[in-house]
């Protein structure tokens, strides 16, 4: 439902900034990090531009860079290329 809401908000008001926490979805689940990264990826693709995340958690920064590249939010994938050397 979260990803659907992000997509609908972004489609209706494309200039509105969308942000939110990306870890509450996994409360009580094993290997929470994987669920959090999956939500983060889909949320970025569908229009979220600010997420409350732990930047020190393994894979978070790489996931953000890759998701922005795939979502067309990183011109010529330059952020991805420059940060994933």
Radius of gyration: 13 Å
Percent of residues in β-strands: 5-15%
Structural class: mainly alpha
Strand order of the largest sheet: 1-2
Structural domains: how many: 1
The count of β-strands is: 2
Q: How would the global form be characterised? A: flat
Helix share, percent:
40-55%
Parts with pLDDT < 50 across at least 5 consecutive residues = none
What is the H-and-E element order?
HEHEHH
Distance between the termini: 35 Å
Number of helices: 4
Query: If you average the pLDDT, what whole number results?
Result: 94
Main sheet record: 2 strands, parallel
Summarize the helices and strands and which ones pair or pack.
Layout: H1 2-12, E1 19-21, H2 32-46, E2 50-52, H3 60-70, H4 78-83
Parallel strand pairs: 1-2
Helix pairs in contact: 1-2, 2-3
What report would you give on this structure?
The structure is a single chain. Helix 1 runs parallel beside helix 2 and helix 2 packs parallel to helix 3. With 85 residues, the protein is mostly helical. It has one domain. The chain contains 4 helices and 2 strands, in the order H-E-H-E-H-H. Strand 1, helix 2 and strand 2 form a beta-alpha-beta unit. The mean pLDDT is 94. Strands 1-2 form a two-stranded parallel ribbon. The N and C termini lie far apart (35 Å).
Summary, kept brief:
51% of the residues lie in helices and 7% in strands.
Give descriptors for this structure.
single chain; mainly alpha
